[in-house]
Amino acid sequence: MRKLVALAATLLSLVIFFPIFYSISASFFTYTDFTSVPARLFSSAPTFDNYQRAFTESKLDRFLFNSLVTASLGTVLRMTISVLAAYTFSFFSFKGRDVLFVLVVATMLLPSDALLIANFSTIRSLRLTDSYLGIIATSLLAPTHIFMLRQYFKTVSPEYREAAILEGCSDSRFLTTLLIPISKAVVITLAIHSFSTIFNDYLWPLLVTNREGMRTVQVALTMLGFSENLDYGPQFAAIALLMTPILIAFVVMHKPIQTSVSTRFAGR
Amino acid sequence: MRRLLIIALLVLSTIQGLVALGATEETLDQVKTITWWHSNSGLAGKASDALVESFNATVGKEKGIQVQAVYQGKSNDVLTKTKAILQSSTTSDLPDLVQLDGSAVLDIRDQKQLIAMEDLAKADGYDLANIIEAARLSVTYKNKMIAMPFNSSTILLYYNKTAFDEAGITEAPKTLKELGTTAKALVKTDEKGKVTRYGFANVPTTYELIVWLGQQNGLSYLTDEENGHTGAPTKVLFNENGTMVNFLSRWKELSATGAVENLTSDLNGAFASGRVAMIVASTSNLTTIFSMVGDRFEVGVANFPMVDEQATGGVNVGGGAIYAMDNGSGNQAAAWEFVKFATSAEEQLKWHVATGYFPVHQDTYTLQAFEQHLVENPHYGVAIRQLMASNPKMQGIWVPSAYQIYYAFQSGILKMLEQDLSAEQTSAALEKEINSYFTEFLRMQGQ
User: Which residues of A touch B269 (CB under 8 A)?
Assistant: First the structure.
């Protein structure tokens, strides 16, 4: 049984690993490598040309900077809002709390595409187009994050907080020195998830920006290609570069992610 | 008092006009900025940047107009963004010009912010006959040219000439029947009997069927309202006029040769890699396919194969066009200057050479440089002669649920081949499905 699970896990990881490997390998392909028969896994003559072209044919560095800024800023704000909201929902009791919570969770049912035009009008009226805030504004409230954090916080007995308060500990201190450290795994997992969603967003940042200098990196990806073109090299180079920050985050943080997943399965 | 003010204003404005005529510095102070949203990336992106630069440095500089080109994502994203602004009631964010492809027509044509390109041209005394008729009609709605065709293309047969030579084939197939014979001669199998090279690959979708149905009997419409160019279509015609049954019967014969691969994506790649010996694809793929194949084999191009000898309609013009929008800036005349420049004979030649889209201006074809270009690149001549010999009235379809219809065609034809259904059955099923999309659309429009 154990062997079977291990085998299945290995196969699964290969399925996930292959596209990552291929995009990195393909970023070194020459023009004709993409259509050679049989298909190749490695470049016939590894070249950095694609990387060079990715930077010269679009302002990739500027776009990458914009993406990193919006994704980091968005993640910090989103996590702050989510943690505070989840804390309120799980440790305080006040009138209308449950109704409010249901309302927040209910927004999970709204597909973001349906809100696209309404959101755009709002951001426009607020004169936030072509600004970092405009790009991240719609990602700041994350009902899934609030929901998951609340579920996690609920596993912490309210008596802990009561005892802490009795000892003269403030809410902010309880939150930062106790609750967050013991929920580290969930918080980190959600933060990485936030970062990658904001970083990977394409349509919204495109919609609220007009100036080239404000564009994010996903837009650059489409700029490098041409629908009727088979010149995939620069696109793969850009993809390889884009994957790097998130890959690094996963590698560095894999321990807490693992704990958050396994503890959830263990039904804490 | 009021009258005095008006007179004073009038005097002032004439003086200003005089000064503007005399001194160039004055006009520089009032440079009009025109925004142009487009979806040109890669090769086409470079070419459109060059076009804008050239305008800004010449005509633009002279007339005090500067064009700002903004890449707004893929064609569909440009439409999404334009629609978002149109729906958000404040339309000052609209660009002066926006480049959209054929599928956008339905969403744009009835917007009150749309300024029909024909009106701008007429205000300038521009003769629309300068633009190739087929291209002009491709953006004509209810007898009015609503946009300026810009990135126009047609469909073409690409073949592996080296494979043709090996198989002793000297002429490209002209009809579907000949296509079957030729394809069969090109099939290669390995020792196990597995096909290593197919003669032809395709599963027809809207793109091919507009031509394969439309060209029959000189000209056949796929839907009523002249393929949707005179109003919203209410029903399809391909079943009752028999063009679909005729086409499907020929397609079944073609498929029965076993030389056709039912490939639905990346046909260019399959062709460039040598796995498929013939494909049909847009003329705008010319530049790319040639560079992609490199010196692996010789590429030939020929007219898009006809359904049968009676299908003499030729091919239609597809691709995109530039639409003018009213954003309250009053820059329409300036925007038109750019459109006129972008579609002028010389600029269309540069655009064509860089991208493979064909020139929409009549005079491009008589330019010395263009003739020279055809001598060096005879393949482009094939596409152009094919278009010139086509019926200009043969046009693409403007239909709601275009995406669903595209897949309805594709899956309907695949189903016919896999389950061996009759052509009549398949045609009737497609009629029923597509008509239901039209009915739904009309119902939503309250008609």
Answer: 34-35, 230
Give strand pairing partners of B358.
B152
pLDDT digit string, tens, across residues B104-148: 888 898 889 999 999 999 999 999 999 999 999 999 999 999 999
Please choose, from the candidates B110, B113, B119, B112, the residue with its C-alpha nearest in 3D space to the C-alpha of residue B141: B110
Task: Give the torsion through C-alpha atoms of A128, A134, A139, A141, to 10 deg.
Answer: -30
Which residues have CB under 8 Å from B294's CB, separation 6+? Answer: A31, A32
Q: Is the pLDDT of residue B45 over 90?
A: no
CATH number for the domain whose boundaries are A62-229+247-265 = 1.10.3720.10
Domains of chain B with bracketed CATH: 27-153+319-366 (3.40.190.10), 155-315+392-445 (3.40.190.10)
Please check whether residue B221 is in contact with residue B293, taking contact to mean a CB–CB distance below 8 angstroms.
no
CB neighbours (10 Å) of residue B124?
A: 13
The phi, psi pair for B111, rounded to 5°, reads -70, 140
Q: Is A113 on the interface with B (CB under 8 A)?
A: no
Query: What chain A residue is nearest to B285 in terms of C-alpha separation?
Result: A228
Question: What are the pLDDT digits (tens) for A151-185?
Answer: 989 888 888 888 888 888 888 899 988 898 888 88
* CA atoms of B124 and B119, how far apart (whole Å): 9
Q: SS3 of A150, please?
A: helix
Asked if A89 and A146 touch (Cβ cutoff 8 Å), the reply is yes
* Chain A CB contacts of B68 below 8 Å: none
Report phi then psi at B68, rounded to 5.
Answer: -115, 110
CA distance B263 to B266: 8
pTM of the model: 0.81
Sign of the dihedral defined by the CA atoms of residues B58, B61, B64, B68, in that order: positive
Chain A, nearest residue to B295 by Cα: A32
CA distance A219 to A234: 14
CB-based contacts of A28, cutoff 8 Å, min separation 6 = A42, A43, A46, A47, A48, A50
How many Å apart are CA A239 and CA A244, to the nearest integer?
9
Q: If we measure between CA atoms, which residue out of B296, B288, B244 comes closest to residue B267?
A: B288
Determine whether the interchain pair B84/A219 forms a contact, defined as Cβ–Cβ distance below 8 Å: no
